[in-house]
Specification:
The structure is a single chain. It is elongated and about 110 Å long. The protein has two domains: 48 residues; 72 residues, Sandwich (Immunoglobulin-like), CATH 2.60.40.10. The strands form three sheets. Strands 5, 6, 7 and 9 form a four-stranded antiparallel beta sheet that branches. The protein is built from one helix and nine strands; from the N terminus they run ββαβββββββ. It is an alpha+beta fold. It is 22% helix and 35% strand.
């Protein structure tokens, strides 16, 4: 009688099948290959990135030009129901500013001032008011050359 194959195990009670083939060696080999591939990829990736950086070192993209500073600096203050904003323009371009006032009460009318041009080196005063409390205040800018 011939000897039984070595990779055959006896069936267990729960499987209900005949003889089953053991796959432990295949699983172990698969895991070993996966670990080896991960190690190689971990070593090769930094080397490839480093080589790519060295290859393109002389052809750097030109930097974008720095934008010129512009726009007024504004300070707002609220005194009861009155709003005041002082805007100073230290830059060589003209800035157009508007004061926006949002009143706290729903029936109080919100207001937007007319546009005022702030020339270079000048300061302007913008004023507005609500009937009752002031909710919020801000200044919008539009720079012109």
């Amino acid at each position: 009688m011939a000897a039984p194959p070595q990779n055959v195990e006896k069936p267990d009670f729960w499987s209900g099948c005949g003889e089953e083939i053991a796959v432990r060696s295949t699983r172990r080999r698969t895991w070993a290959l996966l670990v080896a591939a991960a190690v190689i990829a971990g070593i090769a990736a930094p080397v490839a990135v480093s080589a790519a950086n060295r290859a393109g070192g002389g052809a750097a993209a030109p930097l974008a030009p720095e934008p010129e500073p512009s726009g007024s600096e504004c300070r707002t203050s609220v005194d009861g129901s009155r709003v005041t904003a002082y805007c100073h323009n230290p830059y060589p371009s003209t800035d157009v500013v508007r004061l926006h006032t949002e009143c706290a009460r729903w029936w109080d009318v919100d207001a937007d001032s007319s546009a005022v041009a702030v020339q270079p080196g000048r300061t302007v005063k913008l004023e507005d008011r609500c009937w009752k409390e002031v909710g919020s205040v801000w200044v919008s800018h539009s720079v012109t050359s």
